Amino acid sequence: MSNEKRIEVKDREYVYAIRRKIAEHRADKSFPKPEDFNVTEDIVDDYLYEVMDGPQSIEEQKKVYTRYGICFVVPIAIVALMKQSMQNFIIGVAAGLLMCGCYYLLHRTMRNFRMKKLANSGVVEYIEAIENF
């Protein structure tokens, strides 16, 4: 278990509230500045975007499901070019499911790596300071 800090978000309103607070109080002298925490506003935006669990628009969901579909169908299509039998079909389906699982694990690993990288940059402390302002 690592001892890294991470912001727990129950809904998107939390992220919007943080962004609103930054926009409204940016000019206040007592408001926490990103430079004091060795982060930039871009890093804060990236972190908040990732905390919201990445893109959730319909277009982005379509892209994700299209990738899973391709991972699933390609092995079945390749197996269909071989001698047709039920055993080959089952092998193709199993290979497609395996590819989908590998894609899922790779995608989650990359996301977790980005989150750790962003969290270690001081952005969590900056967001906590904004909450306490």
Question: Could you characterize the architecture of this molecule?
Answer:
With 133 residues, the protein is mainly alpha-helical. 71% of the residues lie in helices and 0% in strands. Helix 2 crosses helix 4 (86-131). The model has no long low-confidence stretch (mean pLDDT 82).
Brief synopsis:
With 133 residues, this protein is mainly α. 71% of the residues lie in helices and 0% in strands.
* Assembly state of the chains shown: single chain
How many helix segments?
4
Query: In terms of per-residue confidence, which ranges show pLDDT below 50 for 5 or more consecutive residues?
Result: none
Helix content: over 70%
List the helices and strands and how they pair.
Blueprint: H1 12-25, H2 41-51, H3 58-80, H4 86-131
Helix pairs in contact: 2-4, 3-4
For the structure shown, list the relevant keywords.
133 residues, mainly alpha
